[in-house]
Design brief:
Layout lengths: L2 H5 L3 H29 L5 H26 L10 H34 L5 H26 L2 E2 L13 E2 L2 H30 L6 H11 L2 H11 L11 H4 L1 H20 L3 H10 L15 E4 L2 E8 L6 E2 L4 H4 L4 E2 L8 E6 L10 H4 L3 H6 L5 H4 L1 H5 L6
Antiparallel strand pairs: 1-2, 3-4, 4-7, 5-6
Length: about 375
C-alpha cells in the first residue's frame, strides 16, 4: 500500500466527534435527571424515555468507536478482508441503534409536550407527529437490519453467498427518513410558540420556553447538512466515503438529546444564579401528588402546564405562618394548580368555570364547610 493512502485516515476525526457528542448528551441527560429527581421530585415517562435514548446513543457511539479501531475511516485498499468485514459489522450495528435513539428521543419530546397540550387540535397534531415518527423509525430499523440475507452478508461477502436490497432502495429510505425527521423536528420546534400563546404566563417565561423547546431545529440542521452525503452509501470505498454520514448522524442524535434536556434545566439555572447572588431565592414546585396540610383541612397538588400558580396563601402570614403554598411556573416543567382532597379543582381558570356560583365551588371545597368560601379565593392563581 502507498504511504499517501495509509495516512489518509478519517477515523480520528470521527472518533473525536463521537466522544464530544457522547459527553455532551450524557452530561445534559444527567443534569436533567438531577433536576427532575432532586429539585422537582417529578421524574416522568418523558425522562425515562430520554434516559433510554441516551443509553442507546452511548451504544451507537461505542459501536462507531469499535468500528474505527477496525478500519472505519480508511480506504478499503488499505484494509485486509478481515478488518474490512469487522468494520462493516460495527457499522451495521450503528444503523438500528441510530433509528432506536431517534425514536426514543422523539417520543420523549412527545410526552414532554403532552404535559403542555390542552387544545384538541394540538393533541391531534402531536399524535400524528408521534405516529409518523414511530412508523418511519420502525421501517428504517427493520430495513437496515434485514437489508441483506443472511444478515451477516452485509459485512462478510467473502466466505458466504447472499443477497442484499439494492443500494438505491436504502438510499431512498434514508432520504425519506431524513425528510420525516426534518418535518417532525420543525413541528416540535414550532409548536411551543403556538401552544404557549394560549397559556397564562408572563411574557418572559413564554419567550424562554419557546427558545428552549425550539432547540430541536438545531438537530434538523445536521440532517440537512447530511443529505448530500447520503448517496455515498453505495460507494465501493464504503468505510471511507461514508464518514461524513456517520459524523452528521452522530451530531443529529447528540443535538436532539441535548435540546430535549436543555428545556428542563431552568430550575437548575435559577438555583445556580441564586448561589451566585444574581437573583432572589428560587421557589420550586413540590412533588407530584403532595398533600399540603392547612388549618382548614388539606389540599392536593397536581402539576399542569396550563395554569400559572404563584404564592398561594389560605390566609395571612400571621394566622398561618409558613403553611402557605409557594409555587411558581418553571420553564420546561410543571406549574401547579390546587385541588381539594376530592380531586376537584378549587377553581378552574376558564371563563365558563369562573362564572360558576359560589354554591358550586363549595361542593368542591374543603372538608369544613366554614372554610369553603375562603379557600377558592385564597388559592386562586395570580393571573396577569
Amino acid at each position: 500500500m502507498s504511504s499517501d493512502s495509509s495516512t489518509d485516515n478519517r477515523g480520528g476525526q470521527l472518533a473525536a466527534i463521537n466522544i464530544a457528542a457522547l459527553v455532551l448528551a450524557t452530561s445534559v441527560t444527567a443534569l436533567r435527571c438531577f433536576v427532575r429527581i432532586r429539585l422537582l421530585r417529578a421524574f416522568g415517562l418523558d425522562d425515562w424515555l430520554m434516559v433510554a435514548a441516551a443509553a442507546s446513543f452511548a451504544f451507537y457511539c461505542s459501536c462507531s468507536l469499535a468500528g474505527i479501531t477496525s478500519g472505519t475511516g480508511q480506504h478499503v485498499a488499505d484494509l485486509s478482508r478481515e478488518a474490512n468485514a469487522e468494520a462493516r459489522k460495527w457499522w451495521w450495528f450503528c444503523y438500528p441503534s441510530y433509528a432506536f435513539t431517534m425514536m426514543l428521543t422523539k417520543m420523549s419530546i412527545t410526552f414532554f409536550f403532552r404535559r403542555v397540550i390542552v387544545d384538541r387540535l394540538h393533541k391531534w397534531i402531536l399524535i400524528a407527529t408521534a405516529a409518523i415518527t414511530i412508523i418511519s423509525c420502525t421501517i428504517f430499523f427493520f430495513a437496515c437490519i434485514f437489508q441483506c440475507w443472511p444478515v451477516s452478508y452485509f459485512w462478510d461477502k467473502y466466505s458466504q453467498t447472499g443477497t442484499c436490497i439494492p443500494d438505491s432502495v436504502i438510499i431512498a429510505l434514508a432520504f425519506l427518513f431524513s425528510a420525516i425527521n426534518i418535518i417532525t423536528d420543525f413541528t416540535f420546534a414550532l409548536m411551543p410558540a403556538w401552544v404557549l400563546s394560549h397559556l397564562n404566563m408572563k411574557l418572559k417565561t413564554k419567550v424562554a420556553l419557546c427558545i428552549l423547546m425550539g432547540l430541536g431545529c438545531i438537530a434538523s440542521a445536521a440532517v440537512v447538512v447530511r443529505l448530500p452525503y447520503m448517496r455515498l452509501i453505495a460507494s465501493d470505498d464504503f468505510l471511507y466515503d461514508t464518514v461524513d454520514v456517520a459524523i452528521w448522524s452522530t451530531v443529529e442524535q447528540a443535538l436532539a438529546i441535548t435540546a430535549g434536556g436543555l428545556a428542563t434545566l431552568q430550575p437548575l439555572i435559577k438555583l445556580i444564579a441564586y448561589k451566585l447572588g444574581l437573583r432572589s431565592r428560587p421557589t420550586l414546585p413540590t412533588g407530584y401528588g403532595d398533600n399540603i396540610r392547612m388549618n382548614g383541612g388539606s389540599i392536593a397538588v397536581k402539576r399542569s402546564f396550563t395554569h400559572r400558580s404563584e404564592l398561594l396563601m389560605p390566609g395571612t402570614d400571621a394566622q398561618y405562618g409558613q403553611m402557605g403554598l409557594n409555587l411558581q411556573p418553571v420553564a420546561g416543567e410543571y406549574s401547579a394548580v390546587c385541588y381539594n382532597t376530592s380531586q376537584e379543582l378549587l377553581r378552574l381558570p376558564t371563563g365558563e368555570t369562573e362564572r360558576k356560583s359560589s354554591k358550586d365551588l363549595e361542593r368542591g371545597g374543603t372538608a369544613k364547610g366554614e372554610e369553603s368560601e375562603k379557600m377558592p379565593a385564597a388559592y386562586l392563581p395570580n393571573r396577569k
